[in-house]
Amino acid sequence: MPSPLLPASSNDATNLHKASPTSSPPPAATITAVIHTTIPIPQRETDPDLDYEHLQLSLEEAFFLVFAIEVIEVTDPSEDSEHKAAFSIQDCWLKFAQASVARSPIAKTISLPEFQLEPDNLFIVRYVVYHYYRSQGWVVKDGLKYGTDFMLYRKGMVFGHSQYGVRVIPCHDFGTLLNNQESKAHSALSMQTIQPVMSPTPGSSMPHTVYSWQWLLSLNRIISQVQKTTLICHVVLPQSITPQQLCHPRTALPFYSVVELGIKRFLPERNRA
């Protein structure tokens, strides 16, 4: 049985060092001093708006959240915060409609007190289409990137690409369209029966000259190149609506109707009968 290890004495350590001249000397003792210091950490400002991201809604998106879902309130930032009151649904309807006219060239000749709401108001026409597709379950986003008014997503932007590009075109009622088609039967372009109006795209105030085949094919070529389908959405304007009915969305929206037209590019090598 091996003997237990015993601590060596100082003489044994000296003799061991002499017996092994090639061995390295014992390491010197190391003294480590630990100094505890406290570094002050600046406190983060407790600003309630510090972590909020900037979110900018279009007029149609904001009004849908106010009117259809009732999840937000719209206020005037110029008013005193203590006495600031949220706009009613009718106030938002009128102010948004007035804002859409204020960014067009015709607003230079119209003063604010003289503003009169018309059935072909740009905000109303666009909101009719926005509300229609939202009620169908589509996620509607702005389509300025592709030259359209709206882009339709099945679930949302984070779940996949959009499937349709929507171009909004206001037009008269069906009776007026039929009369125009009969009177202009010699015209090869039936789209000329749609009267051009101010562009409903935000930031674009130039009037459309005509809705020609060149315009339509150019739009469809852009949309088809990104694997989407072009939708021409006609908003039929009411002809027998009163100003009182037009001043509130609950009484105005039932007078509008939507007619959709899907367009796909014809390829002879793919679409042969």
TrEMBL record:
User: Its encoding gene is what?
Assistant: SEN2
Q: What class of enzyme is it?
A: lyase
Write down what this protein is called: tRNA-splicing endonuclease subunit Sen2
The record's SUPFAM superfamilies line, in alphabetical order, gives: tRNA-intron endonuclease catalytic domain-like (SSF53032)
**UniProt family annotation:** Belongs to the tRNA-intron endonuclease family.
Q: Which UniProt keywords apply?
A: Endonuclease, Hydrolase, Lyase, Nuclease, tRNA processing
GO molecular function terms attached to this record: nucleic acid binding; tRNA-intron lyase activity
Annotated GO biological processes are: tRNA-type intron splice site recognition and cleavage
Tell me the CDD domains matching this sequence. tRNA-intron_lyase_C
What GO cellular component is one of the record's annotations? tRNA-intron endonuclease complex
Which E.C. number(s) belong to this protein? 4.6.1.16
What's its job? Constitutes one of the two catalytic subunit of the tRNA-splicing endonuclease complex, a complex responsible for identification and cleavage of the splice sites in pre-tRNA. It cleaves pre-tRNA at the 5'- and 3'-splice sites to release the intron. The products are an intron and two tRNA half-molecules bearing 2',3'-cyclic phosphate and 5'-OH termini. There are no conserved sequences at the splice sites, but the intron is invariably located at the same site in the gene, placing the splice sites an invariant distance from the constant structural features of the tRNA body.
Residue ranges of the region described as Disordered: 1-27
Q: Which residues form the active site?
A: 153, 161, 228
Q: Which residues form the tRNA intron endonuclease catalytic domain?
A: 123-235
Q: Which organism is it from?
A: Podila minutissima
Q: Which residues cross the membrane?
A: none
Q: Which residues form the signal peptide?
A: none
